[in-house]
């Protein structure tokens, strides 16, 4: 699959980039995409929620009324969850929500996500660019030139680029990552995936294993 390479002004450079069919043109496995996104979101959960249970409530341990003859249900402790101020019954406890997925499934999910975006013509290949210093205005101008300033976009760099990353931090609609940080969740979240030309080799080598 060949796509045009754009410059920083959104103009066609006249060159074509070859997108591997093994990564960008497979039959998408939607269930794999679902599982990988589910795992990503599960790993974001802190799992620190906690409610006090009956044993953790401060209160008297005296039996609050006699066992029989009251005409109501028997009760032994004011700390019971059936009373106001008592412990929470079956309340949340700290836990880890994460779960494991094998590497081959995660690779399949990322390839499926990229193939879905490629099929929708939502992948843009752009030549390498840089800023001399962090420049938010310059970064926004790049997005405007690509007509993605009003959409959620994902920019995939070939390697770490501090100036481009810092330029993007104040612009909430765009996410800048390296090819090694590519995730199914971020691909699916974006309306447009902008792949820097130098990132193609890293993406294809990571996902063709």
CATH topology call of the largest domain: Ribosomal Protein L4, Chain: A
Name the helicity range: 25-40%
Beta strands, count: 6
Order of helices and strands: EEHHHEHEHEHEH
- Identify the CATH class of the largest domain: Alpha Beta
What's the domain count?
2
So, CATH architecture of the largest domain? 3-Layer(aba) Sandwich
Measured between the Cα atoms of the first and last residue, the distance is 19 Å
| Mean residue pLDDT | 93
Q: Taking Cα atoms only, what radius of gyration do you get, to the nearest Å?
A: 27 Å
> What sort of overall outline do the alpha carbons produce when their principal axes are compared?
elongated
Strand proportion? 5-15%
Given as residue ranges, the uncertain stretches (5+ residues, pLDDT < 50) are: none
Name the CATH homologous superfamily of the largest domain.
Answer: Ribosomal protein L4/L1
Summarize, please.
Keywords: Ribonucleoprotein, Ribosomal protein, RNA-binding, rRNA-binding. One of its GO terms (cellular component) is ribonucleoprotein complex. This protein is of the alpha/beta class and 209 residues long.
């Amino acid at each position: 699959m060949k796509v045009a390479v754009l410059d920083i002004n959104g103009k066609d450079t006249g060159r074509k980039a070859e997108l591997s069919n093994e990564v960008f043109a497979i039959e998408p496995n939607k269930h794999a995409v679902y599982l990988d996104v589910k795992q990503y979101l599960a790993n974001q959960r802190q799992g620190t929620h906690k409610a006090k249970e009956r044993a953790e409530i401060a209160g008297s341990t005296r039996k609050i009324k006699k066992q029989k003859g009251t005409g109501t249900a028997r009760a032994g402790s004011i700390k019971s969850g059936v009373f106001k101020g008592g412990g929470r019954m079956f309340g949340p406890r700290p836990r880890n929500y994460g779960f494991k997925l094998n590497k081959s499934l995660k690779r399949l999910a990322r390839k499926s996500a990229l193939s879905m975006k490629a099929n929708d013509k939502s992948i843009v290949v752009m030549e390498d660019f840089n800023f001399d210093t962090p420049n938010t205005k310059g970064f926004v101008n790049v997005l405007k030139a690509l007509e993605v300033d009003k959409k959620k976009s994902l920019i995939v760099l070939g390697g770490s680029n501090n100036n481009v990353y810092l330029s993007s931090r104040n612009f909430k609609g765009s996410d800048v990552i390296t090819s090694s940080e590519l995730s199914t969740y971020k691909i699916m979240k974006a309306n447009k995936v902008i792949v820097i030309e130098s990132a193609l080799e890293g993406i294809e080598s990571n996902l063709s294993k």
